[in-house]
Amino acid sequence: SSELTQDPAVSVALGQTVSITCQGDSLRTYYASWYQQKPGQAPVLVIYDKNYRPSGIPDRFSGSSSGNTASLTITGAQAEDEADYYCNSRIANYVEVFGGGTRVTVL
Amino acid sequence: EVQLLESGGGWVQPGGSLRLSCAASGFTFGIYAMSWVRQAPGKGLEWVSSISGSGDTYYADSVKGRFTISRDNSKNTLSLQIKNLRVEDSARYYCATAGLPRHWGQGTLVTVSS
Q1: Across B8-90, where does the E strand assignment appear?
Q2: pLDDT at A83 over 90
């Protein structure tokens, strides 16, 4: 299967830790990337190659992977982290797939 | 600074055609693979197509045969020709670098409606 499956929504108390998971067969071969998207804005890459953060992304964002599951963890969630998060991976050269997205609500 | 600026979106009737463009700057465009990703209103991200630096093309099954991706490395421009548009093709279309770390444009909106 070339799909990536994410939980539709999670919530986290301000300052607490939340993990978002992404499952798919492609993750056994390729690393996941994670994108944050706020309303009306383009997606922003927060994690790639399993656990690399682009410049400017806070270190409270981290990634991990095991088998067919990738995870994005926000340690000490802030109000500004409230957004939709999408996982993404290649399934072949230049062919890729996105997960359905997880809406993170910070309480 | 990498900049990607999409254009060409608009309203079109079902069965119509559009050509989307993406002007790239701030990096050596010709050596990087590029992609189009779309997002229907209120929905998630969907990979549409990619093109390698040398021009090899790749498409999602949902658009194969109707969409054509191309690039002009002399003009630092990526294009997406869309034919036989369907209502379900209505979305914001984003131009993005295919490699990592990925950079995105702000998107151009395509509305297919009668």
Answers
A1: 10-12, 18-25, 34-39, 45-51, 57-59, 67-72, 77-82
A2: yes
CB contacts, 8 Å: A99 with chain B: 44
Distance from the Cα of A94 to chain B's closest Cα (Å) equals 6
pLDDT in tens, A87-103: 999 999 899 999 999 99
Read off the amino acid at residue A101.
G
Model pLDDT, residue A1: 57
B98 vs A: CB within 8 A: yes
Tell me whether the omega of the peptide bond preceding residue A43 falls within 30 degrees of 0, making it cis: no
CB contact under 8 A, A49 and B105: no
- Could you give the percent of chain A with pLDDT greater than 70? 98
Question: Is A25 in a helix, a strand, or coil?
Answer: helix
According to the model, what pLDDT value does residue B99 have? 83
**Distance in angstroms (rounded) separating the CA atoms of residues B38 and B57:** 17
Distance CA A84, CA A43 (A): 9
CB A61 within 8 A of CB A44: no
- The whole-number pLDDT of residue B100 equals 82
Per the CB < 8 A criterion, the answer to whether A89 and A35 are in contact is no
Å between B107 CA and nearest CA of chain A: 7
